[in-house]
Design a protein that fits this description.
The chain contains 48 helices and seven strands. A hairpin with a 2-residue loop joins strand 6 and strand 7.
Length: 913
């Protein structure tokens, strides 16, 4: 061991000198298990036995107590006889004969104790030498040996003796040793072996002070653990990673040795402590350890003195894991099963009990299955989905009741939607089947609506709602509230489906509707063409709620959508950052992905293109594409728009043809997809194809009766497409129509509108309109729009002959664009500068003039990468009809395969819709 204890050895040597001079002291070497106490005692025994000038050397007798041999009579006394340093006791035959006598029931009779004590006294007195007795772990010396030894020390009545005992603090009675020593009527000295300090460790192990401080914090300064930790650190590629070093084999071996030295009872208490959650009540710990509270508390103090604990808990979370890792699997399961029973009897929360049931692999207790279901319900509601899945899996293995299993499966889908939506999708059909067969409660049936809508199964969601609505009179208040929320979600997310399936009545909800109803209602209000002013206030209230959970997460999402639609980007950004950080910290993929997608949208419309790309990619990494359902259009659409705005067109090529669910085009979520495709097509020259994407946005918005926010103003996007196609008059008409629709009151929308009017104007009007647009955009802080407006203003100034002003304006435009994250500034800013010339004719035909309107639409979609199935869904025709159209298209255009359509794509792009 690296700790030599030189100061303590020197002090013991001084006590030996006092004994030689006649003081006759008793010394106790006190230190925790593994602190070097035994090493110090051996070193002292060797030093004491060394010959010296001027008198006989002491008679040194050594022995050690053992908790396993404490019941063996005279066991330590035999050690003392064998452990005398030079065999100088003389004739031991009589004493050895006495020690060989049979002892009935392990308790020597008084006669035998008396005769053995006299024989030992005679031997020691006859040696004529000072006596030094060194006893390690004196608490565990058997009673008969201790009786004989103390009798000798009292009867000799001469001072040239030294009794040196080692004490690690172990034993059932912490004061018994001290009481026994006081009967000797000798001066008692204590030599402490304290745990090491940071300075000790830094100096003796050569560690940096910060590393030494961390090492002492996790080991309590125990020499045995520190030495092992130092060895692991020296062999590690990162010599400062203390937590990683604690997982090394050497440290685990040292920990096992320390626990063994503490004794099985103490080790059992520590295993019980490791099994329970931090902060377990003392009564629960004692019950699990099978001890009374006082004894359990004493063993905790012993472990604390050894540096393993601090304030009755482990110093480092790795220690309980290591401790249980070294425990046999069967014993570990037994511990957890017993912990579950003890905690359940103590009234612990269901989730706490259920964790132990999972580790135990279940129990036969009648309360276990209902408790697992309740624990899974709470874990799902409180945002611990993976924990809930673990409980449901155990429930599924343990139950044979069909209704109980169906309820567990519904709960599993709810939990997996948060943790692993792909798994939720796989289990959804069986749960829907169970609902149709009447094996689910109304509440469990309604819990399926959200995942069904998420994955585009709106018909199944409608059926589930109708089944529950048929039981309206028998529903509880909670179930009525959930029914109201489900109807709202269906109406808001699938307005087209609601019309096709039969108008869904959305009556007023029950009083005190819960967070899910609030979330759905808020989203419905946002999408309403005449959104009431209360929507913004409701959004702010929602974001002031407490921590995220299953009930509040969609309310927060709806609130953020409302703020984005209202242009409240600063509040939306700060709120979203706070919520996303919480979701990431708690490791809930779906929450994290949803909030990252919204953060990307906030960044895009705030002109922070790099952040928009980063957050959109985070959303797609946290939640895989196949798990997004119809909402894939949000992160994917934002990513495409941000890359297009940066000028990274090549990177978009790999994204634009990504498969999206057919059900997307039944939902307002499709607007993200359509706008992203339109802006990409516009950027790469597919003006007329882009025009059709934007036109479809307007048609769907009107058809569904929903309002689009300013950043999705489809008329302005159509105006850009007309400008790019050389049709400024049509562009102006669309801009004026947009201003008439909004009343011109929306400052954030008025700036882009003025910029487009300027681009469509000429001469003096053009310059004035650009100046007005820049003024409005500066006031609203719309940086990227302002960069484009400044580029247009510079062009107008140059056309007016003011080249100096144009250079200054253009420099500011470039600076702003680069600050927004635009890569190819010249290319991006010049793309929207339109030289106004002769008005192009609306009906100009191309080489594709021979195609019918229906063929034109199919060709455009096929060239854009749509599959036959998606083309059929988009155009509301059969797949067979698509195949027939393509056959005729190939013949008319003179191409032989689908890929060749892209060569004429800019010419046939007019038909998308």
């Amino acid at each position: 061991m690296f700790v030599a204890h030189e100061d303590q050895l020197e002090r013991l040597t001084n006590l030996l000198e006092q004994a030689r001079q006649g003081a006759g002291p008793v010394a106790v070497v006190a230190g925790p298990v593994g602190s070097g106490k035994s090493t110090l005692l051996r070193a002292f025994a060797e030093r004491a036995a060394e010959p010296r000038d001027g008198g006989p050397s002491p008679l040194v007798m050594t022995g050690s107590g053992d908790p396993e041999e404490r019941s063996v009579p005279f066991g330590v006394l035999r050690q003392l006889l064998h452990g005398s340093a030079d065999g100088g006791l003389g004739d031991e035959q009589e004493l050895r004969r006495l020690l060989r006598e049979p002892v009935p029931a392990g308790a020597p009779p008084e006669r035998l104790l008396h005769e053995a004590a006299l024989a030992l006294t005679a031997l020691v007195a006859g040696s004529g030498r000072p006596l030094v007795v060194v006893l390690d772990d004196a608490r565990f010396v058997d009673g008969p040996s201790w009786h004989c030894l103390t009798a000798v020390l009292r009867r000799l009545r001469r001072p040239r003796t030294l009794l040196l005992v080692g004490d690690s603090g172990q034993g059932a009675d912490p004061d018994a040793l001290r009481r026994s020593l006081r009967t000797l009527e000798s001066q008692c000295h204590t030599v402490d072996l304290p745990l090491l300090t940071v300075d000790n460790v830094a100096e003796q192990l050569g560690l940096a002070r910060a590393v030494a401080a961390e090492a002492v914090a996790v080991t309590g300064g125990h020499p045995l653990l520190l030495e092992a930790l130092s060895t692991e650190l020296g062999a590690a590629p990162e010599p400062h990673d203390v937590s990683r070093a604690m997982t090394g084999h050497g440290f685990r071996r040292a920990l096992t040795a320390l626990l063994r030295g503490c004794g099985e009872t103490t080790a059992g208490v520590l295993r019980a402590l490791a099994t329970l959650e931090p902060g377990a009540r003392p009564e629960v710990l004692a019950e699990l350890a099978g001890l009374d509270e006082l004894t359990c508390a004493w063993h905790l103090r012993l472990a604390e003195s050894a540096g393993l604990l601090r304030d009755d808990d482990f110093r480092h979370p790795a220690v309980p894991r290591l401790l249980l890792g070294e425990t046999a699997p069967e014993e570990r399961r037994r511990l957890h099963a017993r912990a579950a029973r003890v905690l359940h009897a103590d009234g612990a929360p269901p989730r706490m009990v259920a964790r132990h049931l999972v580790e135990a692999g279940g129990t036969d207790d009648p309360w276990a299955l209902p408790l697992l279901h309740e624990a899974a319900e709470r874990a799902t509601a409180e945002g611990a989905p993976q924990e809930a899945v673990d409980y449901v899996r155990l429930l599924g293995r343990s139950s044979s009741d069909e209704r109980q299993l169906a309820a567990a499966s519904a709960l599993r889908v709810r939990a997996e939607w948060q943790a692993d939506p792909v798994q939720a999708l796989r289990h959804l059909p069986e749960v829907v089947h169970a609902s149709r067969e009447g094996r689910l409660s109304a509440r469990d049936t309604l819990s399926l609506v959200s995942p069904l809508l998420w994955f585009g199964h709106f018909e199944d969601a409608f059926d589930a709602i109708q089944r529950v609505a048929a039981q309206q009179d028998r529903l509880t208040h909670t179930e009525r509230s959930l029914l109201y929320a489900s109807r709202l979600w269906l109406s808001a997310l699938y307005p087209a489906a609601v019309r096709e399936l039969g108008r869904q009545e959305v009556a007023s909800g029950p009083a005190g509707a819960d967070s899910q109803a609030e979330a759905a209602l808020l989203l419905a209000l946002v999408l309403c063409p005449e959104s009431p002013a209360g929507a913004e206030m409701a959004a702010e209230r929602a974001l002031r709620r407490g921590a995220l959970d299953e009930r509040t997460v969609m309310l927060c999402v709806s609130a953020l959508v409302a703020l984005i639609h209202q242009g409240r980007l600063d509040l939306a950004r700060s709120s979203c950052d706070r919520l996303a950080a919480e979701a990431a910290r708690r490791g809930i993929p779906m929450w994290h992905g949803l909030l990252a997608a919204l953060r990307a949208e906030i960044a895009l419309y705030g002109g922070d293109l790099d952040d928009a790309v980063r957050f959109a990619r985070t959303a797609l990494e946290v939640v895989p594409a196949e798990a997004w359902g119809v909402r894939i259009a949000v992160p994917l659409g934002i990513l495409v728009q941000a890359l297009v705005a940066r000028g990274d067109y090549e990177e978009v090529d790999a994204l634009i043809g990504a498969e999206v669910p057919d059900a997307l085009f039944q939902s307002p979520i499709a607007f993200y997809h359509l706008q992203a495709r339109g802006r990409y097509l516009l950027a790469v020259g597919g003006h007329r194809a882009a025009l059709k994407e934007f036109q479809l946005m307007g048609e769907l918005a009107a058809q569904w009766g929903v309002a689009l926010p300013g950043h999705m103003a489809w008329r302005l996007d159509m105006a850009r497409a007309h400008l790019a196609a050389g049709q400024p008059m049509r562009a102006r008409e669309l801009v004026y129509a947009e201003l008439g629709q909004t009343g011109g009151d929306d400052a954030r929308g008025r700036g882009p509108a003025l910029r487009l009017l300027a681009a469509a104007a000429d001469g003096v009007n053009r310059l004035e309109l650009y100046q007005q647009a820049c003024e409005v955009l500066r006031a609203t802080g719309t940086r990227l729009e302002l960069a484009h407006a400044l580029a247009g203003l510079a062009d107008a100034q140059r056309a007016a002959g003011d080249t100096a002003a144009a250079a200054v304006t253009l420099a500011e435009s470039h600076r702003l664009a680069r600050a927004c994250g635009v890569r190819d500034v010249d290319r991006v800013l010049s793309a929207e500068l339109t030289a106004v010339g002769a008005e192009a004719e609306e009906g100009t035909e191309s080489a594709a003039a021979g195609l019918s309107e229906a063929e034109h639409r199919v060709a455009a979609l096929a060239a854009a990468g749509f599959s036959n199935r998606r083309i059929a869904s988009r155009l509301f025709i059969t797949v067979s009809t698509v195949e027939q159209h393509l056959t005729r298209i190939y013949r008319k255009l003179g191409v032989t395969r689908r890929g060749e359509l892209t060569t004429v794509y800019p010419l046939v792009d007019a038909g998308i819709g």
